């Protein structure tokens, strides 16, 4: 599915984990942030993609932290006696 990520849904993806930028050309994002993939990595750097967030900031993001859908928190069931 990673190969289709960034192509399906007009390049729209969601962060499934948070990431704090380590370099000036990287983009910080939080869980469930909506991003648009503008350029996928080339042969030399396939693990990082160029993306834009909802504030129109652009930068590299690690593709392994992205998904097609927002992250759904686990549901807990409270049982009462």
TrEMBL record:
Phosphoprotein as UniProt keyword: no
Q: Where in the cell is it found?
A: Nucleus
* Ranges for domain SH3: 8-71
Question: What are the record's GO terms for cellular component?
Answer: nucleus
Q: Which PROSITE patterns match?
A: SH3
Which is an annotated GO molecular function term of this record? Answer: p53 binding
Arranged from A to Z, the UniProt key words for this protein are: ANK repeat, Apoptosis, Nucleus, Repeat, SH3 domain
Which GO terms fall under biological process for this protein? Answer: apoptotic process; regulation of apoptotic process
Q: Which InterPro entries match?
A: Ankyrin_rpt-contain_sf, ASPP1/2, SH3-like_dom_sf, SH3_domain
**Which SUPFAM superfamilies does UniProt cross-reference here?**
SH3-domain
This one is known as SH3 domain-containing protein
Which organism's genome codes for this protein? Lucilia cuprina
């Amino acid at each position: 599915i990673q190969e289709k990520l960034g192509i399906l849904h007009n390049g729209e993806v969601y962060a499934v984990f948070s990431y704090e930028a380590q370099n000036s050309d990287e983009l910080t994002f939080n869980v469930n942030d909506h991003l648009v993939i503008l350029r996928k990595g080339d042969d030399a750097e396939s693990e990082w993609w160029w993306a834009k967030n909802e504030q129109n900031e652009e930068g590299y993001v690690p593709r392994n932290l992205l998904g097609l859908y927002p992250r759904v928190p686990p549901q807990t069931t409270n049982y009462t006696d």
